Amino acid sequence: MREFSVSPVVFAAFGVTVLAAWLATRWLVTHLRRRGMLDQPNERSSHKVPTPRGGGLGLIVGLAAGWAVLAAFGEALPPWPILVGAVLIALIGFLDDKIGDINPLWRFGGQAAVAAMVAFSGLKFEAFPLPSPAGFETGWFSIPLTIVWITGVVNFYNFLDGIDGYAGAQAVLAGGALFVLGAGAAADNSALLVAGASAGFLIHNWQPAMIFMGDVGSTTLGFLLATIPLAAPPPERSTTVFAMAMFLWFFLSDGLYTMARRTIQGEKPWTSHRSHLYQLWTQAGHSHEGVVVRVMLMALPLSVLTIAAVVRKDLFLQWMAAGLAVGLFILYRRLAANPKDEEDEPVIQLPN
């Protein structure tokens, strides 16, 4: 897909994005603490001290600064439904952070309406996002399928933003991988800026986090990572969505698996809990940093294989990537279900 030649303006916008996100988030750490917008620990939390929430606003400031640089120099921006949709999703997330616990049906309804706006604007994938022969044309079903994809990624991204640095690190990897893949200037530029804004925010969110992303950040990131692939040329959209699903594999597979398991057990999937696989791993004694690094190290080879498979348009390699994803999830589930802290020193039993 990519002939790797990128305007210096794009890299300048990336630098502005990182700096703006870092500065804005740094200011928010102090401002939100003074305003009392703190996430108080409870029995379902993974943190132990009150921490400011809503730091995703700094991430959004960084993105806006980067897009402004691109616009000033005539570089490609994402289509208007993605920009407008990101603002609306951010607004819904901000209200949820500020008011707290908006009715899930109202929240999901607003997200679905934004996703429908994107799909009906023509930004949809018209083939099922799997390699041939499973990548069949979807016809009229393309719109509801695109809506399910967008709302699913938005909510799974929110669900998986539960430990320090996890959502930010995933966005750096996924945005960077999509940029390397190359899906057209509009998608490439924004993918790089998403990675940059997330990196600027991550400096303050790495363990121990000084600030949390909040719904305003996690849902906006999820929306952008779901919709930026749709800015690719129409013939390449389904393949680009497949690639993004591989880049986000551990978020999506953990979210889908946990939702299905809780539904089967008679629990409400949308209520707060601490039973995602990454949460089980931290509850076993692993640090937030340790879990994030381990998962990203598993995600990296999958992303590299996916990029190679898609760039070469090699169906065999694409199916290999899908098979590797399944195998890695099985490994991930086993590690989370049977955790063992490798850092623990062996216990020596002394004789009586």
Short key terms for the protein model shown above:
352 residues, mainly alpha, two-stranded antiparallel sheet, 13 helices
Distance between the termini: 68 Å
Share of residues in helices: 55-70%
Mean pLDDT: 86
Judged by helices, strands and strand pairing, the structural class is mainly alpha
Strand arrangement within the widest β-sheet reads 1-2
Unreliable residue runs: 341-352
What's the number of helices? Answer: 13
Order of helices and strands: HEEHHHHHHHHHHHH
Q: Measured on Cα atoms, how large is the radius of gyration?
A: 20 Å
Large-scale geometry: globular
What's the count of strands? Answer: 2
What about the largest sheet? 2 strands, antiparallel
Instruction: Note the beta-strand portion.
Output: under 5%
Number of domains: 1
Verbal overview:
- The protein has 352 residues and is mainly alpha-helical.
- It has 13 helices and 2 strands, in the order αββαααααααααααα.
- The protein has one domain.
- Helices cover 66% and strands 1% of the residues.
- The termini are far apart.
